[in-house]
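Lecture 7 notes: from sequence to structure.
We start with the chain below.
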Amino acid sequence: MYWFNLLKANTKKEYLELKRYLPNTLALVLTFYIIFLGMFFGIQIIGDPTTQDINIQFAIVNYIFWFLAMMVINNIGWQITNEAMRGTLEQLCMSPMGLWKIMLSRLIASTVINFILIIALLYLSMFTSGQWLNVDVLAIKPIFVLTIISMFGLGFIIAGISIILKQVQAFLQILQFILAGLTFVPLSVAPMLAFFPFVKGVDLVRDVMIDGVTLSQIAAVDFMILAFNAVFYFIGGLLFFFFCERVAMNKGLLAHY
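Predicted structure tokens for the same chain:
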């Protein structure tokens, strides 16, 4: 019941912030749509006509997951920074639920709400380009869930760093380009990236949406790698967050900005 109330409260908070700051929300979506238009027209103008369709499909999947990764991983860092600036970070730490549970509920809430924006961007991109991908929900769902869990782990690492350093805006901006690199580089070029967070998931979703691969055609070893990444990065990220929270408490970094 406590978890439900916590998730409900934070979902309402995330929704109200998006609604009350609607111009900022619309500007965010418009910015990513413009980025896609740049990639789309770039492929059409200077791309190889024989591989133009597949390149556009590749770009759609990659930039959608880039948007998702930024919303999930970067968001929690901004959350910590904003709470510290408002002077409410220490109050969250004093909550009987614990800071990590509050941050996890916010991650889940923001992911659910931003998923609606992602679906809108996906279909808008497909409509604009005329490239309709294979949206097989049955195959994508388990891949998506395991990929999101590994993203949550990386988000907790960013949150831990934010608790101690507070000012991490420049780092988060750099992280955007790192996330873009991890999203756009195919595993066929760099196979070892399969053990990086969310990279394997993006690769499998590309197989489903572009090549029409079904759930039964995905190898068991691929799901094993996905599950390993999800457990490893989530637990590792949570432990790192606990360590940073303890350091911040010992140094008295929670009470002031």
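Points to note: The chain has nine helices and no strands. The chain has a mean pLDDT of 85.
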